[in-house]
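Per your request, structure below.
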């Protein structure tokens, strides 16, 4: 657990000056989607210190890593896809389905029905 946070937070400056704060702006990317998580994790780590903060701030750090890399989200999507493939493949083997997956929707399925498609799509016409 202690070594998992070191690659991110081992760049603590020896002396804090205006220049280290300016340089930090380039590394931290203020205004990014994970700014609040990073700020909370950094403040927690600054409050507890590096050694004790590794245990005390683990929740904040986990939230930051989830925001940056979407690891839990990707794992959840992977498991849902595997479950769907197992269920649909089993139904296909049993003869309950003609195809493993549903056919894709028609090309114009996402457009509103009252629109005239000729105003938007001109296939085979010269203008």
């Amino acid at each position: 657990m202690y070594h998992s946070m070191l690659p991110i937070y081992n760049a603590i400056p020896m002396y804090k000056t205006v220049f280290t704060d300016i340089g930090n702006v380039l590394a931290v990317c203020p205004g990014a989607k994970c700014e609040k998580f990073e700020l909370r994790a950094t403040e927690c780590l600054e409050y507890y210190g590096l050694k004790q903060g590794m245990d005390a701030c683990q929740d904040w750090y986990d939230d930051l890593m989830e925001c940056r890399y979407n690891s839990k989200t990707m794992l959840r999507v992977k498991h849902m896809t595997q479950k769907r493939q197992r269920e649909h493949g089993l139904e296909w083997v049993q003869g309950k389905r003609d195809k493993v997956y549903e056919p894709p929707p028609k090309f114009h399925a996402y457009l509103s029905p009252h629109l005239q498609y000729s105003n938007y799509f001109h296939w085979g016409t010269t203008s």
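The two ends are 65 Å apart (CA to CA).

Regards,
D.
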